[in-house]
């Protein structure tokens, strides 16, 4: 490889509780390692990533920049995903797009890891730090299948262990380590010489290509798995079931992606929202009927039926309230 060609790719995913650990990792990285580091941190849309950059830069020996569309990839530089946009890798350049949410995150760890694995195969090292839920699990599978290495922060020391534990539950990782050991492992890995190119699995190439386009169609999506009778809770598109070594995901043809727990959670939320709408409409109808004028043209039979209907609506409202309470138990 030429001296200018980038081949030491490190991708890091962090969420709740991950920022202090990430700061420690960057503080220990040496310019001698010649790595290009890409980071996705789960932040609220309202959080300015410049604040995160400044906090990390205080201790980092490597310069940190917020990734931009078309930015070239350079050695000894750290790239931070911007707020509310996916960061993706092609060979030698970065793509930044506002595509569909994955696991209800944008930027998504899975999106970065998957595209990095497709572009740089065995030259990628993926690192998952403290965080909630399971973003990053599918991405780590992609890195592993392309011949890369997977490091996970020891869940017992993580502030929030969900992300590390979900990876460990689905993948035989290369390293399960304390945060302070990560930089030593990276130095050891990249002191062994150049990585050896490896063929990227076809299914990973296909999904990475769909991810990079940030759009798809039914024909290309069903090549990744089996179409289901279920629909996307975000857009109503048909969901395709994708199996990955015992880990199941669902992707719609507009680009939304859900793990099984995330899809279950979204269906529960949509169910609750629908029931609240039904409850409001029943309350409104009952109030309307209660306040209708007892005009002379209404016969006693009509008034009696209305009173009966008001009581029935009251019963339905009570049942709906009970159902809504039980949904969250």
Automatic annotation (TrEMBL):
Enzyme Commission number(s): 3.1.1.61
GO molecular function: phosphorelay response regulator activity; protein-glutamate methylesterase activity
Catalytic machinery residues: 15, 42, 135
Alphabetical GO biological process terms: chemotaxis
Keywords per UniProt: Chemotaxis, Hydrolase
UniProt domain CheB-type methylesterase: residue ranges: 1-168
Catalytic activity reported: [protein]-L-glutamate 5-O-methyl ester + H2O = L-glutamyl-[protein] + methanol + H(+)
Entries under Gene3D superfamilies matching the protein: Methylesterase CheB, C-terminal domain
Entry coiled-coil feature ranges: none
The keyword Hydrolase is annotated on this UniProt entry: yes
Example of a GO cellular component annotation carried by this entry: cytoplasm
Stated name of the protein: protein-glutamate methylesterase
Organism: Sphingobacterium deserti
Source lineage: Bacteria, Pseudomonadati, Bacteroidota, Sphingobacteriia, Sphingobacteriales
């Amino acid at each position: 490889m030429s001296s200018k060609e980038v081949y030491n790719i490190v991708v890091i995913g962090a969420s709740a509780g991950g920022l202090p650990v990430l700061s420690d990792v960057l503080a220990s990285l040496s310019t001698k390692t010649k790595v290009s580091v890409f980071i996705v941190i789960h932040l609220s849309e309202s959080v300015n990533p410049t604040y995160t950059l400044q906090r990390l830069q205080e201790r980092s020996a490597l310069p940190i920049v917020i990734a931009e569309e078309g930015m070239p990839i350079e050695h000894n530089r750290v790239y931070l995903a911007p707020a509310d946009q996916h960061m993706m890798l092609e060979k030698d350049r970065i793509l930044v797009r506002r595509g569909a949410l994955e696991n209800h995150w944008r930027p998504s760890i899975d999106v970065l890891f998957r595209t990095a694995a497709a572009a740089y195969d065995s030259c990628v090292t993926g690192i998952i730090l403290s965080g909630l839920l399971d973003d990053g699990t599918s991405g780590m599978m992609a890195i592993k299948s392309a011949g890369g290495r997977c490091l996970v922060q020891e869940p017992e020391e993580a502030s929030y262990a969900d992300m590390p534990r979900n990876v460990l539950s689905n993948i035989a990782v290369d390293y399960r380590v304390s945060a302070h050991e990560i930089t030593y492992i990276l130095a050891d890995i990249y002191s062994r010489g150049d990585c050896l190119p490896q063929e990227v699995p076809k299914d990973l190439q296909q999904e990475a290509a769909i991810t990079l386009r940030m759009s798809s169609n039914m024909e290309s999506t069903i090549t990744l798995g089996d179409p289901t009778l279920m629909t996307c809770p975000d857009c109503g598109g048909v969901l395709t079931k994708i199996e990955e070594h015992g880990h199941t995901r669902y992707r719609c043809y507009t680009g939304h992606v859900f793990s099984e727990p995330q899809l279950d959670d979204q269906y529960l939320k949509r169910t609750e929202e629908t029931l609240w709408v039904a409850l409001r409409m029943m309350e409104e109808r009952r109030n309307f009927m209660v306040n209708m004028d007892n005009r002379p043209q209404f016969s006693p039979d009509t008034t009696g039926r209305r009173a009966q209907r008001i009581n029935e609506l009251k019963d339905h409202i009570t049942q709906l309230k009970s159902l809504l309470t039980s949904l969250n138990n």
